[in-house]
Amino acid sequence: MTEPDDFPSEEQNVAVLIETLREDLADLNWTPAALMDRMRSLGDYRKPQTILRGINRALEGQTKPSGELLCLVRQAVRFKRRLLRSYGNTLWTQLGDGSHTTQVEDFRITLAPQTKGRWLVVVVHKDGYSPAYPRWQETLEAAKHMAFMTLDNAQNWQQEYAEEQAREAAAHL
Question: Rounded CA gap, 144 and 48, in Å?
Fold first, then answer.
């Protein structure tokens, strides 16, 4: 661009979109596989390899990142910020085996050290319900962030389950 009134070219716009996607994924500490997991958990019905291929092609500049993909990732960044505002000051207790644990509402969260410095996130409700374990996280801080997202998923599942039970009970009246 030579003049202030010049609009960026399509090529420049695509480069900005790719960089925005990369920055947002870095802010989330997510790999393409972690983004694919999130998309599947939110209802993306495509095969995992298809989703992953699309993400990687966008990150490599082979295709323009879709508006939906950019929106989803930006929304996840904002969601992470909200969760950190809500739970960021949570007190964690380090156990003898090196794991870290805390209680948030009716959920016990445990971050267990794994090989190569990675962390397993385990969230369990007092009644025994446990959402699917997310992928191992690369750092303790990333594991804490993922724990809060997993906690939110579990709380949403419980709410949806309670609503479904209420609908079924009402249908039998």
Answer: 25
Which amino acid is residue 135, in one-letter code?
Answer: R
Residue 14, helix vs strand vs coil: helix
Do 55 and 110 share a domain, yes or no? no
Q: Which of 34, 57, 87 is the last residue of a domain?
A: 87
Give the pLDDT of the chain (173 residues) as one tens digit per residue: 445 555 556 777 889 999 999 999 999 999 999 999 999 989 999 999 999 999 999 999 999 999 999 999 999 999 999 999 999 999 999 999 999 999 999 999 999 999 999 999 999 999 998 988 889 999 999 999 999 999 999 999 899 988 999 999 999 88
- How far is it, in rounded angstroms, from Cα 59 to Cα 23? 11
How is residue 123 annotated by DSSP? E
For 128, the token pair is 């025994």
Q: Measured between alpha carbons, how far is 126 from 161 in angstroms, rounded to an integer?
A: 16
| Domain residue limits at 113 | 93-171
**First-last CA distance in the chain:** 69
Report the candidate in 74, 110, 103, 72 with the shortest Cα–Cα distance to residue 87.
103
